[in-house]
Write a structure and sequence with these properties.
Length: 362
């Protein structure tokens, strides 16, 4: 585990001249070099850019911070398109919006206030509820990912670890962002009073899940999503009864069998699409028993959420990917760090709109 010394961090934007943009040919060639692709398709530009990039690695070995920042800028433009596209996974978790640096995440909450309407007026007056709107600012959270680079190996043309590092940054930021949203929404629901649709226990129980889906369905067409450990349990609920025994599952449709055979999962359950949230291992930590790695996101949460405009969850990314260069506190190695601002909000007073089932065994 590397520790990034914040006080000694150098913002790459302060060390680059701005000549390199995401449209610069060197960005595409750098990405191809990192993937180990043949550069002959770029012609003379490929040779020129390759020599230039290798020269940057060589300069970093001589403690040239400008070269380190320029390389991080190339990495940023290589990582950013795929990362921002993947961040749209947050749309499964509610309305997603990409904001600029000069914009602030703001949540809008609509409420019905006043006395409920009566069928008949009393004393000539007709009381009725009115819809009011509350707008409030949502704080953003900086999600980070980074890696240590073997600049000596890269200067000689071996960029295999470079590609692996950039891939890990992309995966890490994406999963940390989803985890942040899950943790925040789950805490809001658990801490809410009044009506809410939650369940907890060892394994998912069909009757409990069906009741939760029915409740959420009245708020909008639901989608079911979560880690494979929980949504795979829905496979056992896909059967039907033939009346031989009350409540006993005695058959399963051929279409459902085909879905499970191809993907290991049902695509639909109780009229709701079932979506698996990718959840990789965190190779830096292991479980309490030491028998396996922990996952980057909670594996035991099954969500039932209304889709479209009815969802009370809003998520945002603010600005583009930013980068810093710094040194590991313990080893002194040069570290590249990348940040993305993420915000998430569950509308106040609308905690009942999201069903969440926690499998304590997952």
């Amino acid at each position: 585990m590397y520790t990034f010394e914040i006080n000694a961090a150098r913002k790459d934007s302060e060390f680059v001249n701005g000549k390199i943009t995401k449209y610069s040919p060197v960005v595409e060639i750098f990405s191809a070099m990192a993937r180990g692709e043949e550069l002959s398709k770029f012609g003379a530009k490929g040779d020129e850019a390759s020599k230039y990039v290798k020269g940057l690695y060589q300069k970093v070995l001589s403690n040239d911070y400008f070269a380190a920042s320029e390389l991080n800028t190339l990495r940023k433009f290589a990582i950013e398109p795929a990362l921002l596209k993947e961040m749209q996974i947050l749309s499964f978790f509610g309305r997603y919006q990409s904001l600029g640096y000069d914009e602030t995440p703001e949540a809008e909450v609509y409420r019905h206030e006043g006395e409920k309407s009566r069928e008949q007026a009393a004393n000539g007056d007709v009381p009725f509820p009115v819809i009011t709107k509350e707008t409030y600012t949502v704080p953003s959270q900086t999600i980070s990912g980074g890696f240590a680079v073997d600049y000596r190996k890269a200067a000689q043309g071996d960029m295999s670890k470079e590609n692996e590092g950039m891939e890990q940054v992309r995966i890490s930021i994406r999963n940390k962002a989803v985890k942040y949203c899950m943790d925040k929404v789950y805490a809001s629901i658990k801490g809410a009073s009044g009506v809410k649709y939650t369940a907890e226990g060892a394994a998912i129980v069909k009757a409990t899940l069906d009741a939760m889906i029915q409740n959420v369905n009245r708020l909008g067409k639901p989608v079911i999503f979560g880690d494979r450990a929980v949504i795979s349990q829905l496979n056992a609920f896909a059967g039907y009864t033939d009346g031989a025994a009350a409540g006993a599952i005695t058959g399963i449709s051929e279409a459902a069998m085909e879905e499970i055979r191809r993907t290991g999962l049902l695509a639909w359950y109780a009229g709701c699409p079932v979506v698996e949230i990718p959840n990789q291992y965190d190779f830096t930590t292991v479980n309490a028993a030491g028998t396996n790695f922990n996952t980057l996101m909670p594996a035991g949460l099954l969500w039932v959420a209304p889709t479209g405009v009815n969802t009370p969850i809003q998520t945002w990314t603010r600005g583009d990917l930013t980068s810093m260069t710094g040194n590991d506190v313990s080893t002194g190695m040069l570290i590249s760090r990348f940040d993305l601002e993420v915000a998430c909000d569950l509308a106040k007073g609308r905690e009942y709109s999201i069903g969440v089932y926690k499998d304590t065994d997952a």
